[in-house]
Amino acid sequence: MARGRLQKEIKKRHAFESVEQEAMLNLLRTSDRFQTSLTRLFRKYGLTSSQYNVLRILRGEGKPLPCLEIADRLIAEVPGITGLLDRLEAASLISRERSSADRRVVFAAITSEGTELLGRLDQPLEAHHRRLIGHLTRAELAELIRLLEKARESVAHDA
What we know:
The protein is mainly alpha-helical. It has a single domain, classed as Winged helix-like DNA-binding domain superfamily/Winged helix DNA-binding domain (Arc Repressor Mutant, subunit A). It has helices at residues 5-9, 19-44, 49-61, 67-73, 81-90, 112-133, 138-152; strands spanning 65-66, 94-98, 106-110. The protein starts with a helix and ends in a 7-residue tail after the last helix.
């Protein structure tokens, strides 16, 4: 097999052991580069990727959600949802309230400050997405989505 771009980027002298290995390492390298780029953008707004994700979930839902429901909806798993929500609440971006029906359940809601912060971030993030993958055609993006969803099927049972 001809030496691919990733092999050159990481200065790997020998061919990958398999096409699966090369594909997986390409996926991980791309994910790392994109995550680093997004982290830099979110940092400008005082957020982490996980905090942004929580705010987007709450804004999209339009009503308070149980904290465990938020944890289930996150793009990337976080080990401590409580700590994540603590930091958002300390920044006045969310509020939390214990359920009167079941005291074990805590609901979180986005505040007006959180909504305003997301509003300021919407356009820069959309421009950032276009910069990262806007060079792909709509058909390529649709195929990429399909392939990534298909690839995740192998770990769906682990979730």
